[in-house]
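Predict structure. Input: DYW domain-containing protein, 588 residues.
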Amino acid sequence: MDPHPHPPPFYYSQRAHEALLRAGPRLKPLQQVHAHLLITGSHRNLSLITKLTLLSCAAASIAYTRRLFLSIPNPDPFLFSSLITSFSKNRFPNDAVLLYRRMLVTVPSLRPSSYVFTAVIKSCSELSALRVGRVVHCHALVRGYWLDSYVEAALVAFYAKCGDLVCARKVFDEMPERTVVAWNSMVSGYEQNGFSEKAIGLFHQMRDLGVGFDSATLVSVLSACSQVGALELGCWVHDRIRDNGYDMNVVIGTSLINMYARCGNVSRAREVFDLINDRNVVSWTAMISGYGMNGYGREAVELFDTMRARGPPPNDVTFVAVLSACAHAGLVQEGRKAFASMSEDFGLVPGMEHHVCMVDMLGRAGLLSEAFEYIKRLDLVKPAPAVWTAMLGACKMHRNFEFGVRVADHLLAAEPGNPSHYVLISNVYALAGKMDRVEAIRNRMIQKGLKKGVGYSTIEVSQKTYLFSMGDKSHPETIAIYEYLDELMKRISEAGYVPVPESVMHELEEEEKEYEVRYHSEKLAIAFGMLNTSQGMPVRVVKNLRMCEDCHSAIKFISVVTQREIIVRDKLRFHHFTDGSCSCADYW
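Output follows.
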C-alpha cells in the first residue's frame, strides 16, 4: 500500500488554489479552477473568487468575468476597485465606467482610491465620453484628489483626447508638479487636434525647463514637425533619439519616416526605413506614401512590388498610397495593375478613397471620358464629393469645360455647403468664359454665408515656425521682405517670367491681378527664408491650400535666379523646384 496516498479527487487547499490561479490568464484552466471551487465549496472564499475574477478579465473573457462578479453576493470595496482597474487596464472601458457607477450605488460611503479615479478617467478618454468624464472629474475634486499627480495627468489626457484643449490646459497649468506623462498628454493633445505650432511651443518650454522627455514625447513632436514642415527641429529630435540610445523600433522609425517625407527629405526617410528591422505594414505604407507625395512615383511602385514579394501583406491604406503615387506621376498602367491586385490577390474591397484615386489618375492623364464612365459604374447612389472634385480638377487641368460644367452640377448637389467647391467651379466657369455663371456662383456663396478658406504658408527658420498670409504686413521684417520680394520679381521678369492672372479673382483689372499674385503667402515665406538662411540651403515652405499656377511658375524662375532649391508642400503634394524645373513636371 502506498504510504503517501494522493489526496482525494477535487480536494485542493487554499494555497493550491492560489497556485493554480497564478498559472496564467488562460480561460479553460480558470474554468476548471472555478469548477473545483464550486465542488469544494471554496467559492464562498472572497479572496479566491476575487483573484479568479481578475484573472478572467486579464484573459479577455468579459462575459465570464461578468458572470463571476454577479455570483458574488456582497462584493467588497477591494473587489470593486481591483476589477475597475483591471477592466481599464485590459481595454474594457465601457465595463469600467458601468462598474464605477454600480460601486457608487452599492457602496455610497466608499472613498475610491486615486487608482480607481485614474482608471475610470482613462476609460472615459477611450470612449471619448466627455460628459461622463466631467462628472468623474467632479467626484475626484470632492474626494480631495485635485492635487493628485496621477489623477491630474489622466484628466489632461482625457480632455485632450476629447478635444477640450482649454480644460486640458487649465488642469495642466494648475498641476503643482507636472509629470512627464502630463507633459506628453498636453503635447500630444495639441498635435492630434491640429495645433502643431502649440505642441512644438510647449515642447520648447518643456526643454527649456529641463524636464526629462521620453520616446512618447519625441514621437508626438515628430508628428507635429511633419505637419508644419519643421525639418530642423525634426533633425534635432532624431539626434536625441540616437544620443539617448532609443531603439529604432517600428513606432519611432515610422514617425521619423513620416517627418522626413512630409518635410521633403525623401532620402533621409529611406535611410531610416532601411534601419528598421521589424518593419510592419505601417512603416512600409509610410515610405510608399512619402515617395508618392514627393513625386517619386516609380520608386513608390517599386517599393510596393518589394513589399508584395518580401514584406507584410498590404492593407487598404497601402493601396491608397500607391494609387495616389501613380495618379501624381501619370503611371496609369501601374495604377490599373495595383487596383486590380487589391481584390484579386489580397481580397480587399475598394473603398471610396481608392475610387477617388482611380478617377484622379485617369483624369490627370487626360482620360476624362473613361474617368466619367468609371464614376457612372460605381455601385453607389451618390458618389462622394471627393470623386467629383477629382473629376472637376482634371477638367480644369485639361481645359475641358464641356465636361467641367456637367461635373460642377454633380459636385454642388453632392456637397452644397463646401466653399472650396464654389471657388473651383467659379474658376472653371471663368476659364470657359461663362461669366454669368461665375456671378451666379458667387451670389450663391454670399446667400449661403460661405467664405473661401484663408490661405497661409509657414516656414521654419532656426527651429522656429513663421506664418504668412497673402499681403501680410505683420512681420517685424515686413519692409525688408517686401523689398527683397520686389527685387526677386523684377529679376525673374527679366528672365522671362509672365504673371498668370487666372490665379486670382477674374473680375479684377489686369494690373490689380498682377499685384494680387505678387504677394501670395508662399512668395512672402520664400523671400523671408532666403533673407534668413545661408546661400545654398534649401528653402522649405508649407502651404495649407493648393498652390496657384502663378506661384508655381514664379518659383521655378526664382530657383534659377537665386540658384537655390525651393521645396513647397501644398494641400495635394510636394513641389521640388531646382534650376527652373519642378519635380511634378507640371503634372499637378
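The radius of gyration is 30 Å.
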